[in-house]
């Protein structure tokens, strides 16, 4: 792991993400000129290939968490967490996985569970029964290896299913799959 750049504000972070070709960006949500949520969105839309973004903040506020995740963040870490958690979040993001700080996870899950389920969008109807099963396992927090064991398939097969589910639903990360599953009450239909 190597730090290859620093930015003083959100606009500079977007520009550096464009020309440095980084794999992961750790982005403070509270920045001048362009806040972190706007910068995450801009990075996701304008940097190709888009790096994974880990949101970092002092404020344990639901709106920051949900805003960052909706904008495309792959992880969310509070600044008062142990430094090892930030390292773990960066490593997870570099592998295409997501990590939400355990200090906010339980509250986030409760909030998503309270959201009234909406009719499933057409994309959900495009999933095969196996892809839907994989989506449910991802939403429960299982790793690819754990899903492979549960379904008695290879880990590569699980990765393929996860990639197809992401593509069919128009989502970018496993964190977004979890959000999607809770928003649409997919776990309750198993």
UniProtKB/TrEMBL annotation:
<dbReference type="Pfam" id="PF00196">
    <property type="entry name" value="GerE"/>
</dbReference>
<dbReference type="InterPro" id="IPR011006">
    <property type="entry name" value="CheY-like_superfamily"/>
</dbReference>
<protein>
    <submittedName>
        <fullName>Response regulator transcription factor</fullName>
    </submittedName>
</protein>
<dbReference type="InterPro" id="IPR001789">
    <property type="entry name" value="Sig_transdc_resp-reg_receiver"/>
</dbReference>
<keyword id="KW-0597">Phosphoprotein</keyword>
<feature type="domain" description="Response regulatory">
    <location>
        <begin position="1"/>
        <end position="94"/>
    </location>
</feature>
<feature type="domain" description="HTH luxR-type">
    <location>
        <begin position="120"/>
        <end position="185"/>
    </location>
</feature>
<keyword id="KW-0804">Transcription</keyword>
<dbReference type="InterPro" id="IPR058245">
    <property type="entry name" value="NreC/VraR/RcsB-like_REC"/>
</dbReference>
<keyword id="KW-0238">DNA-binding</keyword>
<dbReference type="Pfam" id="PF00072">
    <property type="entry name" value="Response_reg"/>
</dbReference>
<dbReference type="InterPro" id="IPR039420">
    <property type="entry name" value="WalR-like"/>
</dbReference>
<feature type="modified residue" description="4-aspartylphosphate">
    <location>
        <position position="28"/>
    </location>
</feature>
<dbReference type="InterPro" id="IPR000792">
    <property type="entry name" value="Tscrpt_reg_LuxR_C"/>
</dbReference>
<keyword id="KW-0805">Transcription regulation</keyword>
């Amino acid at each position: 792991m190597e730090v290859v750049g620093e930015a003083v504000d959100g606009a500079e972070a977007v520009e550096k993400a464009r020309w440095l070709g980084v794999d992961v960006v750790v982005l403070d949500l509270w920045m001048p000129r362009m806040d972190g949520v706007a910068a995450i969105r801009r990075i996701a839309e304008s940097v190709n290939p888009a790096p994974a973004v880990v949101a970092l903040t002092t404020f344990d506020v639901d709106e920051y968490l949900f805003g960052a995740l909706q904008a495309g963040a792959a992880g969310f870490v509070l600044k008062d967490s142990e430094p090892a958690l930030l390292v773990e979040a960066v490593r997870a993001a570099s592998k295409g996985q997501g990590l939400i700080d355990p200090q906010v996870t339980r509250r986030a899950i409760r909030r998503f569970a309270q959201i009234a389920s909406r009719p499933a969008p057409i994309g959900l109807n495009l999933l095969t029964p196996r892809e839907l099963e994989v989506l449910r396992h991802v939403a429960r927090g299982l790793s690819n290896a754990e899903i492979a064991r549960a379904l008695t398939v290879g880990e590569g097969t699980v990765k393929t299913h996860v990639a197809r589910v992401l593509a069919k639903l128009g989502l970018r990360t496993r964190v977004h799959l979890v959000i999607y599953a809770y928003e649409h009450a997919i776990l309750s239909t198993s």
